[in-house]
Write a structure and sequence with these properties.
Layout lengths: L1 H12 L3 H7 L2 H10 L6 E2 L4 H10 L15 H17 L1 H11 L2 E2 L5
Antiparallel strand pairs: 1-2
Helix pairs in contact: 2-4, 4-5
């Protein structure tokens, strides 16, 4: 049971906006913005998880199933709330990253 709980939690965290922007390579968030046809050209590192979720909501319309590589709006809103909390916890680190590296730009697919 303990192993199952750990697997479920780790699976949920892989979709978390904060995990994708703070703890993974910048190209993960950058490619997601481009793949989902977001209208955001970049996202700040401060509250980047919430910003990624907002930019995902602000993207071109997609299916509502959430199983075709494009998350459903209800899942994005749920993650937005969780990312807001997680972004607050890592705020000192993201302030440092913002000063050192700047915004995360959207990938340009040609």
């Amino acid at each position: 049971m303990k192993l199952a709980s750990i697997l479920i939690i780790s699976t949920l965290l892989t979709g978390c906006g904060t995990v994708n922007t703070v703890f993974r390579d910048d190209m993960v968030a950058s490619n997601k913005l481009a793949r989902w046809h977001s209208h955001c050209d970049s996202i700040p590192r401060i509250y980047s998880g919430a910003a990624l979720n907002y930019c995902t909501l602000d993207a071109e319309p997609r299916h509502s199933s959430g199983f075709d590589g494009h998350p459903a709006a209800s899942l994005i809103l749920f993650d937005l709330a969780l990312s807001g909390v997680a972004d607050t916890v890592v705020l000192p680190y993201t302030i440092y990253l913002q000063n050192k590296r700047g915004d995360i730009p959207k990938a340009r697919f040609e």
